[in-house]
Amino acid sequence: MSMIAAVLVFGLIVLIHEFGHFIVAKKCGIGVIEFSIGMGPRIWSVQKGETRYSLKVLPFGGSCMMLGEDENEKDPKAFNNKPVWARIAVVAAGPIFNFILAFVLGIVIVCRVGYDAPELVDVQEGFPAQEQGMQAGDIITRLNGEPVVVYRDITLYRLLHPTETVNVEYVRPSEDGKAMEKRTAVITPKYSEESGSYMLGIVVSGYYRPVSGLGEILKYGAYEGIYCIKTALKSLTMMFRGQVGMDDMAGPVRMVSIIDDTVKETIPYGIETMILTLMNLCVLLSANLGVMNLLPIPALDGGRLVFLIIEGVRGKPIDKEKEGMVHLAGMAVLMGLMIVVLFNDISILFFKK
Fold this sequence. Notes:
Structural class: alpha+beta
Shape: elongated
Number of helices: 9
């Protein structure tokens, strides 16, 4: 069941990504030679019109091969013969569809389990939050100007800024319960010998609160995807600053292991719990794939977008041979990185337990 779950999770994410490229290419009149799910030799395929639809042996990855994508073609349906705006739309569609998948799944999850409200259930005695007058029932709205929508925003901010003085903006229900009073507190974290970390002294339950009405469903459902995008961007920042090491990065092998653990831990609570947890993983992975693909790295969608935007600005394309060499070099670097991540995954799973 764990392997089936892993194939379904990765398959769905890749399918949606490649379907984004495919459907926009078709809408723009670009010929699609092959639309495939998986990599390696074909195990099944069917030809419909100009397009071959294929299922390949390795269940990770996929492709949308377009006519004249990497070479000059005279056919008016060739990718490189279309206006630059059409090509930008096709390339950007893959990551955008990953974001759409994250938003849609987020809405389904919120409908079923609600959202983790950033509401205090208590303040710890002798810590700064209590000294600044905060109390149970307060709802945190901002930390040093950064919006707080869910409880996870607080934990993420504290993870990135453990010792930093925080300007906390929060609201408190009025005595009659009909209005919210806006308040602020400036809190310097205090070191706790018991926990071995710096603490504000706030206690947030993290319990999920049911949503009420379409507005809350859309707001908190969409924010599931937004939160994962924000987390991915902050993680990249930490990586460039050296705050994240190789052991903190999970490749496909470790992700399969994580999915396996997820299935084993949640199946005793019922199929619905397992499915919702896997959907949550899909939101995280789909948002991350969208962010990573938009990075301006040669061979990725973001790298191709850079060349197309330059073409749009200067009014003529960059020499295809030179662009191809840049993408080839980028692909070589990415393949090298994938090998490093693969070996690191194997090392952690089998030798560092």
